[in-house]
Every structure is written in structure tokens, then in C-alpha cells.
């Protein structure tokens, strides 16, 4: 397919710069505004640092053992996140929010958490504490103090909503970049994967068409203390920054939200356990993970 003349919109969301580019057409401006609005709606619903977001209100106001009704968007996020948590055997876990907030990696105000406090936080972590009630479109959480973190889901989910919106409006060519979470449609793009030790250099360039790309690595946000580097990705089992055998994990698949979650899960799991999970995911989620790389 020949590349068309493109138009784009740029905006700030998810603590990063976001871009949506699509083919030139009479209603391109309206479509781009719609893309931006969808992205901001997802962020406003799921932002755990905004006390007024629906996610924050839920985590603050729910009562253990009682159904808490949520919007369709928040329910979708919880359903997708909990499914990935189960399939990855907890390597990906959306309930690490309290740990993420306490470590504050990337804020400039990081500190090492002592073991007593760490134990207390881990006791408030675990995806198995959340159960969804589809008939009521509600969540039921069985203990107090659970904080849900959308960090490895939100951008991918927003991209998938936007791609669905564009396809419904018969857009054939588009490219989305939400802080390194990518989706390209209609044409083949050559996507560079950064070298973690020197992010100005590329360690690989891959051709991508009608696929999402997501990379997880320590260099995105980190701090150093006593000669040790602490990355921003938290291991749900230990409550500490992940000590991965990988320096970087890149996932390419049909759905941006799967690419987003899987790059995090595989970074935690390592090669052997990660390959086992990928095989399981291919078998159980063939529709959503077709073309997983």
C-alpha cells in the first residue's frame, strides 16, 4: 500500500508525549481530536495519582467483601489485567500500586523500603484479592488497602480503543506512539529497539505492520543507591524492583494492551518461564495474541 499524506495530533498524557498520525482526509481533524479525547478519557479514569479518578475513588471507597460497581471502561481494564495476572501466574499483577507509590522510582524522591514496611505492603498485594461480578459490572475486593496500578496497561488499552475507533471510521493508515508504546496500521514501518546501555543507539530494527510494539527495560525510570541500580518495574513476589536476566524485553502482537502487559510480565519472568507463559497464552488466547513475537 502506498503511503498517503499524513496528519497528526500531539498531546501530553500518561506522563509522556503521545502522537497519533493518520492519512489525510476531509475529516482528519475531527478524527484526531476524537483520538486525543479517547486517550485522555482512559487516563482520567485510570490515573492512580489523581485522587479524583474513578480508579483512585474505587481503591479508596470500596469495602472488603462488598460489590463495588464500576464503569464499563474500568471494568474492561480490571478484566484484562486480572486475566493476564492469572495467565502469567502473577508475574504481572495490577495490585502492586501501593508498592509502586512507596518506591516512587522516577520521581526524584526514591528511597529504599525497609523489610518491615515491605512485608506490610506485600500483604496488601495480590490479584487473587479481586473478583469481578459480570452481572453487576462490579469488583469485589476481600481485604483493605489494595491499590491497583494501571502503569503497564493504560497506554496499551488507550491505543487499542483508538485503533478500534479509527477502523470503525474506515481509516486505513495510521501510526500511534504513546511514549514508546506503538501501533502501526496499513503500512509496514521499521521500528527501532533501543540499546538499554546506550538508549541513543538501536540494537535492532524490526518491520511491523498492523501490530503493536511495547518494550520494558530498566533504563526507562531508575535510581542508583550504594552502587546499585533500581529499575521502576516491581516484582510482585518480592515487592522490590525486578532483578531481571534481561536488559530489555520487546513484544510485538496484535493488541497493544497485550504487548504492554506482556513486556512487563516477561521482564519479570525471565527466558525459560517466559517461554512457558507465551506457549500457554498462544493456546488460550489465540484470537487476541495471533502473531505474538
TrEMBL record:
Keywords: FAD, Flavoprotein, Magnesium, Metal-binding, Transferase. PANTHER family: FAD:PROTEIN FMN TRANSFERASE (PTHR30040:SF2), THIAMINE BIOSYNTHESIS LIPOPROTEIN APBE (PTHR30040). It comes from the Bacteria. Magnesium. Can also use manganese. GO terms for molecular function: metal ion binding; transferase activity. It holds the Pfam family ApbE. Its EC number is 2.7.1.180. It comes from Hungatella hathewayi DSM 13479. Mg(2+) binds at residues 152, 260, 264. It catalyses: L-threonyl-[protein] + FAD = FMN-L-threonyl-[protein] + AMP + H(+). Its cofactor is Mg(2+); Mn(2+). InterPro entries: ApbE, ApbE-like_sf. This is FAD:protein FMN transferase.
Amino acid at each position: 500500500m502506498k503511503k498517503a499524506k499524513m496528519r497528526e495530533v500531539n498531546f501530553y498524557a500518561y506522563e509522556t508525549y503521545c502522537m497519533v498520525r493518520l492519512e489525510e482526509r476531509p475529516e482528519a481533524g475531527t478524527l484526531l481530536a476524537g483520538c486525543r479525547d479517547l486517550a485522555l478519557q482512559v487516563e482520567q479514569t485510570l490515573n492512580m495519582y489523581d485522587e479524583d479518578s474513578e480508579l483512585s475513588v474505587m481503591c479508596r471507597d470500596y469495602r472488603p467483601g462488598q460489590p463495588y460497581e464500576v464503569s464499563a471502561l474500568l471494568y474492561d481494564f480490571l478484566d484484562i489485567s486480572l486475566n493476564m495476572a492469572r495467565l502469567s501466574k502473577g508475574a504481572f499483577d495490577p495490585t502492586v500500586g501501593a508498592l509502586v507509590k512507596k518506591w516512587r522510582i522516577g520521581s526524584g524522591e526514591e528511597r529504599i523500603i525497609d523489610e518491615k514496611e515491605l512485608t506490610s505492603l506485600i500483604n496488601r498485594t495480590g490479584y487473587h484479592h479481586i473478583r469481578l461480578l459480570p452481572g453487576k459490572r462490579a469488583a469485589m475486593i476481600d481485604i483493605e488497602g489494595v491499590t491497583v496500578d494501571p502503569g503497564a496497561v493504560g497506554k496499551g488499552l488507550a491505543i487499542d480503543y483508538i485503533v478500534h475507533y479509527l477502523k470503525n471510521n474506515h481509516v486505513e493508515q495510521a501510526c500511534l506512539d504513546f511514549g514508546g508504546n506503538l501501533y502501526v496500521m496499513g503500512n509496514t514501518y521499521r521500528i527501532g529497539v533501543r540499546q538499554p546501555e546506550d538508549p541513543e543507539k538501536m540494537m535492532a530494527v524490526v518491520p511491523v505492520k498492523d501490530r503493536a510494539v511495547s518494550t520494558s527495560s530498566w533504563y526507562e525510570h531508575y535510581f542508583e543507591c550504594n552502587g546499585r541500580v533500581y529499575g521502576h518495574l516491581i516484582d510482585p513476589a518480592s515487592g522490590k524492583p525486578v532483578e531481571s536476566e534481561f536488559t530489555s524485553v520487546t513484544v510485538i502482537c496484535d493488541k497493544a494492551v497485550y504487548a504492554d502487559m506482556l513486556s512487563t510480565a516477561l521482564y519479570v519472568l525471565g527466558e525459560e518461564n517466559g517461554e512457558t507463559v507465551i506457549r500457554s497464552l498462544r493456546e488460550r488466547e489465540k484470537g487476541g495474541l495471533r502473531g505474538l513475537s
